[in-house]
Amino acid sequence: MAQAISSSAYLASPEDYVALMKPRVMSLVIFTAVIGVLVSPMTTHPVLMVISILAIAAGAGASGAINQWYDRDIDAQMERTANRPIPRGRVHPDEALSLGLIISVLSVLVLGFAGGFKAAAMLAFTIVFYGLIYTVWLKRSTTQNIVIGGAAGAFPPVIGWLAAGGDFGLEPLVLFLIIFAWTPPHFWALALVRNDDYRRVGVPMFPVVHGFAATKRQILAYAVIVAVVGVIPAFIGMAGLMYLALAGVLGLRFLQLSVALWRSDDADMKTPMALFRFSILYLFLVFLGLGLDVGLAAIWMGYGA
Questions:
Q1: Which of 76, 161, 163, 273 has the fewest CB atoms within 10 Å around its CB?
Q2: Which DSSP state fits 168?
Q3: What does the alpha-carbon distance between residue 75 and residue 201 come to, in Å, rounded to a whole number?
């Protein structure tokens, strides 16, 4: 039986409002946006950069609140999301929507002041894309929801690049592609574990519609793309040999786990969770390695000068 949203009094705590903004997702947004800033031309004042990062984080959190407002019906029925503030009756749905919309507008305005029009326009597009196109349309209508919707999570480093004075070009495109290619195998690995949840609420995740075998093949195909895209920065002058070695090793490990998943039994839930957990580490280390490589190169060049 579907779990109804609690009708208890709405007694939200600060932690509930933080949870509305999906802090785990926000932390990833902040991190990748910071790396986008670090590898950019960096022509903007550091204080404005800090303000820009905070605005990007706020925008991501706002879109998360809008997402939870719209998905409150299925969140209440899924084990993974049943404890979110709205299903628990801690935050009123209208309050969550208002919070999301207000912070969305403020974050775009602040970023426009601190990071410029291009960055603000990209942030506005990202909020609309995730809050409306993905949440309202793609998520419940197509098995490619994560593939297309993954673009929303791939924009933050591009926004950081633009906010720091960079322009559209090959470098921000590569930053985008690293996350865009990473998103499907990352989420589909979790979807294999949470398949019953998605089936129960009628969300057409890839394994729900096409089965485990087809999903595992898709994950393996994307893992190849992840491994290739991950090393591109070293071949276009964005990073050096240190990054190439790191990204290469991480990409091979990603492939190894994807092959293990492809060969695993459908009843095996440990293997997809192992890939899911490693995928988080992969993205963190790849972006960290890129930031360190660029930063150390800048220090070395300054020392040599």
A1: 273
A2: S
A3: 9
SS (H, E, C) 279-300: HHHHHHHHHHHHHHHHHHHHHH
Nearest to 115 by CA among 48, 64, 56, 170: 48
Residue 123: count of CB within 10 angstroms of its CB = 32
In CATH, what number is assigned to the domain containing residue 57? 1.10.357.140
- Looking at the structure, tell me whether residues 70 and 174 fall in a common domain: no
Cα 218 off chain centre by = 19
Q: What is the pLDDT of residues 55-85, one digit of tens each?
A: 999 999 999 999 999 999 999 999 889 999 9
Q: Are 192 and 215 in contact (CB under 8 A)?
A: yes
Domain boundary among 167, 191, 206: 167
Residue 273 shares a structural domain with residue 304: yes
DSSP 8-state code for residue 234:
G
Largest Cα separation within the chain, whole Å, is: 69
pLDDT tens sequence across 239-262: 999 999 999 999 999 999 999 999
Residue appearing with tokens 């930031």? 291
Q: Is 7 left (phi over 0), alpha (psi -120 to 50) or beta?
A: alpha
